[in-house]
C-alpha cells in the first residue's frame, strides 16, 4: 500500500468539494437547520397550549373555614408555563372545544372535589384530550401533573398514603364517532402524504436533471412542444406513478395493518393527486438549480425536513411559535396531512376539507407557473 | 422555391456574459444544399446551430429559418442532431424513435412505420428492443441521427455528427447525409475536420463568431492559392486578423 496514492484520492475528493461551493454550503446549512429545528421543537417553553378548565367544585366547610380545592388547582394550572388556562362553564362545553380542536385539552374539576379530598375519599380530576391529535396529550398531561405536584409540595393537597386518593382520569374525546382510534390510524394518513411527497420529489427532480444532462431536454425544447405541454406530460406521468404508489400504501395500511378509512377513498386519492401536481413542478424547478444528482439529494433534507417538523406530522402545529405556525401554513405537507387525516380518521367530506384542498391547489398552481417560468429560461 | 434561403442570418450577435460567442455572423444557406460550418473549437458553430434551432435568442441581428423567425413555429420542419447522443438511455431504440416522432407531430402508426424505416436505413433493426445504454458508441450516434430525421425534416442541423466515430461509420454517415440531401433535405453540418468539410457543396468558415469566407471548397482553395481547406482556413483567418496587427513599415 502506498500512502501517497491514498492521499491523492482523499485530496482529490476535498479539491472536488472546493470546486462545488453549493455542496459545501448545503453540507453546513442543512445540518444546522435540522439541528435548530429539532432543538427548538424538543425544548420546553414554546407556545402555550390553550387548555379549557371547568371548576365545578362546590368547596367544603371545615373547622378551619371554607376550603375550595378546585380554585387552588385552577391557580396551580395557571402557574404552569406550558399551558394557557381558559375557564369554561360546563364539562360539555369543554368537551366540545376539545373536539373542535379549539383547545388542546380540558380539565374538569368535579363538584365534590373538595369534600372528597377533605374526607379522604378517592376522587379524580378528569382530563379531556382530543382524539384528533395524540401529540397534544403529552404536554397537557405534563402540565396537569405539574400543577398537582406543586399543590402537594405546598401542602394544599394531601401527600403520602392518601396520595392515591386523588387520581387523574383521562377521557379521550372521540372525533365524529370514531372510537378506539389507534396511533397507527392517526399516523397512517401522514405516512401516505410523506411518501407521496418524498418519492415524487426525488423521482421528478432526478428524472428532469437527467433530461437536462443527457441533452434530451434540449431536444424537447427544439421540438414544437410548448413548455406547458412538457410540464403537463411530466405531471400526468408522475401523477399516474404516485397514484399507484398511494394505492399500494393505502391497500397495505387498510388490509394488512387494519387502518381505518372513515371517509371516501376517492377523496384520499384526490388529495394525493393535488399534492403530487405541486411536488412534480417543485421537483422540475429545483432540478434546474442542481448540477448533479448529489446536489438533488442535498435538496431533500432542505425541502423535506422542515415540512416534517413544522407540518404537524410529529409535533402539533399549535405548539409552534406564531411565526413558525404561519410558515407551516405555506408548506404543502401541512395541508395534505390535515386533509388526509380529516378524511381517513374523521370521515370528513370534500366540503369539510375544502380549505386545505384549496391551499394545496394554490401551492400546485404556483409551482406549475414557476416550473413553466424556469423552462422558459431554458430557451433563451 | 429553390430561391428562398433555408437559413438567412445577418449580423447575428449572441453573448454569454462578456464572451461574444457570435459577433455579427452573416450566413445564407440555400434550400437543398449541404453547407459545412467549419471553424476551430470556440468559433461559435454550436451557438449558431442553437440559434437556428430556436434554443438561443440572438441579442442582435436578424434571422429567418425556412422563411420564419426561428422558434417553435418552424420546429416541426427542423431536425436537430446534438453533438453527443441525446437519447433516453433506459428506452429501447424503437421507443426513442417513436417518442421523438410523436413529439414532432407524427401519429403513432406513422411514427412506428417511420421508426422501422429508419432502423432499416441505419441497420439497427436487430437492436430495436435493446435499450440505448447497451448500444456501442457508434450505434448510439446512429440512433441519435435517426431521431433527428424521424419526422422527415426539411432542414437538418447536424452538430459535429462524426466526432468520435470510426472511419467506417463516418463513411456510412456521410452516405446517409448525401441520400437525405438528394431526397430534398437542406443540411447544415458543423465540423472542425477539414476533409469532412470538403464533402459539402459549400463551406462557411467562421472564427471568433464571425464569417471569414463562404464558397465551394474549390473556390475557397482557389481564392487563397491553397490545395487543402485547412490551409485555406488559416489564410482566411490570418487575413482577418492582419488589419488588427500594428503595421510594420518596411
Task: Give the tags.
heterodimer; A: 380 residues; alpha/beta; abc type-2 transporter like fold; 2 domains; five-stranded mixed β-sheet; two-stranded antiparallel sheet; 7 strands; 62% helix; elongated; B: 250 residues; Rossmann fold; six-stranded mixed β-sheet; three-stranded antiparallel β-sheet; 9 helices; 36% helix; 25% strand; globular; disordered C terminus
Report on this model:
The complex is a heterodimer of chains A (380) and B (250). Chain A has 380 residues and is of the alpha/beta class. Chain A has 2 domains: 49-173, abc type-2 transporter like fold, CATH 3.40.1710; 183-378, no CATH class. Chain A is built from 14 helices and 7 strands. Chain A has helices at residues 3-18, 21-42, 69-78, 91-99, 113-119, 137-153, 183-213, 216-221, 227-256, 265-287, 293-310, 322-328, 332-344, 354-378, and strands at residues 49-55, 60-62, 65-67, 83-87, 105-109, 123-130, 166-173. In chain A, strand 2 and strand 3 (65-67) form a beta hairpin. Chain B has a 6-stranded mixed beta sheet, with helices on both faces. Chain B has a 3-stranded antiparallel beta sheet with strand order 2-1-4, with helices on one face. Chain B has 250 residues and is α/β, with parallel strands linked by helices. Mean pLDDT of chain B is 90; it is low at 244-250. Chain B starts with a strand and ends in a 9-residue tail after the last helix. Helix content of chain B is 36%, strand content 25%. Chain B is built from 9 helices and 9 strands. Classes of the chains: A alpha/beta (380), B alpha/beta (250). The interface between A and B is medium-sized, with 14 and 22 residues.
Amino acid at each position: 500500500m502506498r500512502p501517497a496514492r491514498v492521499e491523492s484520492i482523499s485530496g482529490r475528493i476535498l479539491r472536488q468539494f472546493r470546486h462545488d461551493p453549493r455542496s459545501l454550503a448545503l453540507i453546513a446549512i442543512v445540518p444546522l437547520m435540522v439541528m435548530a429545528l429539532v432543538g427548538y421543537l424538543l425544548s420546553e417553553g414554546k407556545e402555550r397550549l390553550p387548555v379549557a378548565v371547568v371548576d365545578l367544585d362546590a368547596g367544603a366547610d371545615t373547622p378551619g373555614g371554607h376550603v375550595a380545592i378546585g380554585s387552588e388547582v385552577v391557580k396551580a394550572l395557571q402557574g404552569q408555563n406550558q399551558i394557557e388556562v381558559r375557564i369554561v362553564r360546563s364539562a360539555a362545553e369543554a368537551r366540545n372545544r376539545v373536539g373542535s380542536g379549539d383547545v388542546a385539552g380540558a380539565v374538569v374539576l368535579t363538584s365534590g372535589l373538595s369534600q372528597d379530598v377533605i374526607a379522604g375519599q378517592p376522587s379524580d380530576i378528569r382530563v379531556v384530550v382530543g382524539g384528533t391529535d395524540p401529540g397534544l396529550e403529552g404536554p397537557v398531561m405534563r402540565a396537569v401533573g405539574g400543577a398537582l405536584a406543586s399543590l402537594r409540595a405546598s401542602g394544599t393537597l394531601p401527600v403520602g398514603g392518601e396520595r392515591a386518593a386523588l387520581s387523574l382520569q383521562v377521557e379521550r374525546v372521540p372525533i365524529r364517532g370514531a372510537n378506539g382510534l389507534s396511533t397507527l390510524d392517526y399516523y397512517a394518513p401522514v405516512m401516505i402524504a410523506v411518501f407521496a411527497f418524498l418519492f415524487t420529489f426525488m423521482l421528478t427532480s432526478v428524472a428532469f436533471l437527467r433530461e437536462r444532462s443527457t441533452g434530451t431536454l434540449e431536444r424537447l425544447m427544439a421540438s414544437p412542444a410548448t413548455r406547458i405541454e412538457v410540464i403537463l406530460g411530466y405531471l400526468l406521468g408522475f401523477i399516474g406513478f404516485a397514484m399507484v404508489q398511494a394505492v399500494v400504501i393505502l391497500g397495505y395500511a387498510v388490509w394488512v395493518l387494519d387502518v381505518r378509512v372513515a371517509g371516501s377513498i376517492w377523496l384520499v386519492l384526490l388529495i394525493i393527486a393535488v399534492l403530487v401536481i405541486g411536488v412534480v413542478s417543485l421537483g422540475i424547478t429545483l432540478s434546474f438549480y442542481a448540477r448533479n444528482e448529489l446536489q438533488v439529494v442535498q435538496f431533500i433534507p432542505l425541502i423535506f425536513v422542515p415540512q416534517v417538523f413544522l407540518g404537524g406530522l410529529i409535533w402539533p402545529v399549535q405548539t409552534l411559535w406564531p411565526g413558525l405556525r404561519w410558515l407551516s401554513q405555506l408548506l404543502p405537507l401541512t395541508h395534505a396531512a390535515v386533509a388526509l387525516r380529516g378524511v381517513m380518521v374523521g370521515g370528513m367530506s370534500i366540503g369539510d376539507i375544502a380549505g386545505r384542498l384549496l391551499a394545496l391547489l394554490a401551492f400546485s398552481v404556483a409551482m406549475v407557473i414557476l416550473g413553466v417560468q424556469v423552462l422558459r429560461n431554458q430557451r433563451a | 422555391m429553390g430561391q428562398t434561403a433555408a437559413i438567412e442570418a445577418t449580423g447575428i450577435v449572441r453573448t454569454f456574459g462578456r464572451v461574444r460567442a457570435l459577433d455579427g455572423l452573416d450566413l445564407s444557406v440555400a434550400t437543398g444544399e449541404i453547407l459545412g460550418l467549419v471553424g476551430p473549437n470556440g468559433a461559435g458553430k454550436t451557438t449558431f446551430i442553437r440559434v437556428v434551432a430556436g434554443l438561443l435568442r440572438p441579442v442582435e441581428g436578424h434571422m429567418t429559418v425556412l422563411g420564419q423567425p426561428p422558434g417553435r413555429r418552424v420546429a416541426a420542419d427542423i431536425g436537430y442532431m446534438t453533438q453527443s447522443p441525446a437519447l433516453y438511455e433506459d428506452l429501447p431504440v424503437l421507443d426513442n424513435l417513436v417518442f421523438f416522432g410523436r413529439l414532432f407531430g407524427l401519429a403513432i402508426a406513422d411514427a412506428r412505420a417511420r421508426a422501422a424505416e429508419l432502423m432499416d436505413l441505419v441497420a439497427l433493426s436487430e437492436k430495436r428492443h435493446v435499450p440505448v445504454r447497451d448500444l456501442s458508441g457508434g450505434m448510439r450516434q446512429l440512433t441519435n441521427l435517426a431521431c433527428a430525421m424521424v419526422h422527415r425534416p426539411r432542414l437538418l442541423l447536424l452538430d459535429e455528427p462524426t466526432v468520435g466515430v470510426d472511419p467506417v461509420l463516418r463513411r456510412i454517415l456521410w452516405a446517409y447525409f448525401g441520400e437525405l440531401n438528394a431526397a430534398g433535405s437542406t443540411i447544415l453540418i458543423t465540423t472542425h475536420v477539414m476533409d469532412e468539410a470538403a464533402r459539402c457543396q459549400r463551406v462557411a468558415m467562421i472564427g471568433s463568431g464571425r464569417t471569414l469566407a463562404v464558397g465551394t471548397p474549390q473556390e475557397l482553395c482557389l481564392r487563397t492559392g491553397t490545395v487543402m481547406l485547412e490551409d485555406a482556413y488559416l489564410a482566411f483567418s490570418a487575413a482577418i486578423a492582419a488589419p488588427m496587427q500594428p503595421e510594420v513599415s518596411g
